[in-house]
Amino acid sequence: MPTAQPSTPHPDYDFAVIGGGLTGMAIAWGLVRRGRRVVVLDEGDTAYRASRGNFALVWVQSKGQGMPEYALWTMASAQRWGEFAAALNEDTDLDVAFRQPGGLHLLLSEREVESRANALLRLHNQPGMQAFEYRMLDHDAVEKMLPQVGPEVAGASFCPFDGHVNALRTLRALHVAFARLGGRYRPNHAVERIEAHTGEFRLATAAGEIAAGRVVLAAGLGNARLAPMVGLEAPVRPQRGQIIVTEKVAPFMNHIVHTIRQTDEGSVMIADSWRRQATMPRSAARCSPWRHNAPCACCPCWRGSTWCAAGRRCA
Ligand SMILES: Cc1cc2nc3c(=O)[nH]c(=O)nc-3n(C[C@H](O)[C@H](O)[C@H](O)COP(=O)(O)OP(=O)(O)OC[C@H]3O[C@@H](n4cnc5c(N)ncnc54)[C@H](O)[C@@H]3O)c2cc1C
């Protein structure tokens, strides 16, 4: 967080947060809760905005290979999510549906099981790593937790700390909470230039200039362009992912899978933030027989549901 040299007494705001996604709004809400004058400057609807199109896992089990600190942050964050959700609920009456039922990473062959077990061992054996609970499960154990699992699933890794949330409602709750405490949200205020002056930063936006004592860069992919304006580097780049969302169906999944989860509202989300388009639905189909043509009978609650992407209707 860049800080200007103190001296000018009254910039417009104590903090200008650039970016109104989950990161920016969480920081902005934290700041107004501490009595700071905060403005959030956000770009328009054409911007890349991961907070509005993500899979919403609070995922612990595989984070931190090569960087044990990341695993520690992830675990600390997952442990504090309940407190965070409760605080948001208190400020807004909105339930962001944080649940921590434990997550499964499904594996499609004995080779994948062995490779996953080794990877998790390597993760936990790193110097400085704080080990956390996880288990490797065989097919039968997976089936007990997830009766709809496909016959090709050889096993899974399971971690009881994995959870999920309603990400869109979380974003909405952060906006509501921020506004209720007097924070100013400015959409269509893409920051084009940041200049450090004595005691304040001046931010040039399409809708005029704003001055703030401190600036928070929370512009997601926009940080790559903004960071050098304050002597920092943020070499982030876009990466293609894909999410399929079905219409809402009655609850049937007790656990989350790293690529399949049922939301609190009933939709099933099928996703992969890494793979290319064709491989993701195919591997999801192998994990769960209810995604093949015939076996909707395996999961009657899903019969008739409509895919909003990857265009197939199970009827
Ligand atoms: C397909 C997919 C699946 C994902 N799944 C998960 C998951 O399961 N779990 C998880 O934890 N994370 C997941 N993520 C990652 C997660 O969504 C992001 O880490 C998170 O949303 C980033 O939030 P952000 O606020 O930093 O960025 P963004 O949501 O991208 O927000 C950046 C904001 O900055 C604004 N902006 C950009 N440039 C400027 C500018 N110059 N001036 C003003 N405003 C600007 C944009 O308009 C935008 O509102 C996923 C991401 C994707 C794409």
Which radius of gyration do the C-alpha atoms yield? 22 Å
* pLDDT averaged residue by residue: 87
How many structural domains can be distinguished in the coordinates? 2
For the record, give the distance between the C-alpha atoms at the N and C termini, rounded to a whole number.
Answer: 53 Å
Output the structural class: alpha/beta
* Strand count: 15
Helicity, as a percent range: 25-40%
| Small molecules in complex | flavin-adenine dinucleotide
Low-confidence stretches: 291-315
Please list the strands of the largest sheet in the order they lie side by side: 8-2-1-11-10-9
Which series of helices and strands comes N to C?
Answer: EHEEHEHEHEEHEEEEHEEEEH
Largest sheet properties: 6 strands, mixed
Quick one: CATH class of the largest domain? Alpha Beta
The number of distinct helices, counting runs of at least 4 residues, comes to: 7
- CATH architecture designation of the largest domain: 2-Layer Sandwich
Characterise this structure.
The chain is α/β, with parallel strands linked by helices and 315 residues long. It has 2 domains: 13-54 and 168-230, 3-Layer(bba) Sandwich (FAD/NAD(P)-binding domain), CATH 3.50.50; 103-165 and 240-314, D-Amino Acid Oxidase, Chain A, domain 2, CATH 3.30.9.10. It is built from 7 helices and 15 strands. The longest helix has 25 residues, at 68-92. It is elongated. The structure holds flavin-adenine dinucleotide.
